[in-house]
Amino acid sequence: MTTPKQNVIASINTAKANLERALIEVEHLPSFDPGAFRFAAHAMGNYLAVVQGSIQLLSRELEDHPSATVHRWLDGVQHASNLMTQMIGQLLHSSSTAELKLVCSKFDLATLVLNACQLYQHLAGEKNIGVTVESSLREADVWADGVALAAVLDNLLSNAVKFSPPGKRIVVRLFSESAHFVCNVQDEGPGLSEEDQRKLFQRGVRLSAVPTGGEPSTGYGLAVAKELIDQLGGELWCVSQLGEGACFSFRLPRYVEDKHGPSQSKTDSKPPAS
C-alpha cells in the first residue's frame, strides 16, 4: 500500500513525463502563418458566397411554393450562411494550407456564367452598373470542380463590381478556343498600372485601386482564384491599361469523354496531359 507521499511523488513524475512528451510534440508542430490563415479564410468566404448566391436563386424559384416548411428551411439556411460570413470576417481581421482536394466532373461553364451574371446583375444594380453576357454557346462542358469554378467566377465578378464606378458596364464573354473554353470578365474601372500587374495573384498584396463603394478588400481574392484555376489545369491572366479598365480571363480544358469519362477517377483535380 502506497503512502500519500509516494502518491504525490508518482503524480509529479507522471506530470513531468507528460510535460516532456508535450514539449517534444510542440517542436514538431508547423509554425503559425497568419497570412496562410487569412488566405484560407478568404477561400472559405468565396465558397460561402457561392452558397449564398445559390440560396438566392432557389428562393426566387420557390417564391410561390405552397409549403411553409420549404420557406422556413430556406430562411434557416440563409441565416446560417449569414452567421458564417460574419465569422469569416472576424477571422480575416485576426497554419499552412495544403493543396485542396478538388472533385472534378463534367461541368457546364455556360450555365454557371449565366447564373452568376444573373445574380451579380442584381448586386451591381445597387451601383447602377450593368452586367452583360456575350456568348453564343448553349453548352460549354469542362472538366472541373463546380464549386471551385463558381468561387473563381464569383471572385472576378465581385472585383469588377467592387472597383467599377457607378454607371459603368461589366461584360462577360464565353467562347471556344481549340481544346479549351475561355471566359473573360471585362470592366470599365480604373485599370491596373504596370507595377500593380507585377503584384497580381500574390497573397495578401493590396493593389492601388480603391473600391468605389467602400467595400472591403483583403488582397487574397485573386490569389485564391489563381490557385484554384491552376489546380484545375487551366490558366488565369489579366490584360489592362491604367485608366482603361481590366479584363480578367481564365481558360479551361474542354470535357472529353475519352479522357474524362467513367474510367477517369472522380478525385483527380487535374485533367490528363494532352
β-strand number:
7
What is the subunit organization of this protein?
A: single chain
| Largest sheet geometry | 5 strands, mixed
The named CATH superfamily of the largest domain: Histidine kinase-like ATPase, C-terminal domain
**Uncertain ranges:** 263-274
Radius of gyration: 24 Å
Compact overview of the structure:
With 274 residues, the chain is α+β, with helices and mostly antiparallel strands. The protein has helices at residues 4-27, 34-61, 68-92, 109-124, 146-163, 194-199, 221-231, 257-260; strands at 105-108, 130-134, 141-144, 169-177, 180-186, 235-240, 246-253. It has 3 domains: 1-30; 34-92; 105-260, Heat Shock Protein 90.
Helix-strand blueprint:
Layout: H1 4-27, H2 34-61, H3 68-92, E1 105-108, H4 109-124, E2 130-134, E3 141-144, H5 146-163, E4 169-177, E5 180-186, H6 194-199, H7 221-231, E6 235-240, E7 246-253, H8 257-260
Parallel strand pairs: 2-4
Antiparallel strand pairs: 1-3, 4-5, 5-7, 6-7
Features:
Heat Shock Protein 90; disordered C terminus; two-stranded antiparallel sheet; single chain; 5-stranded mixed β-sheet; 3 domains; 274 residues; 8 helices; alpha+beta
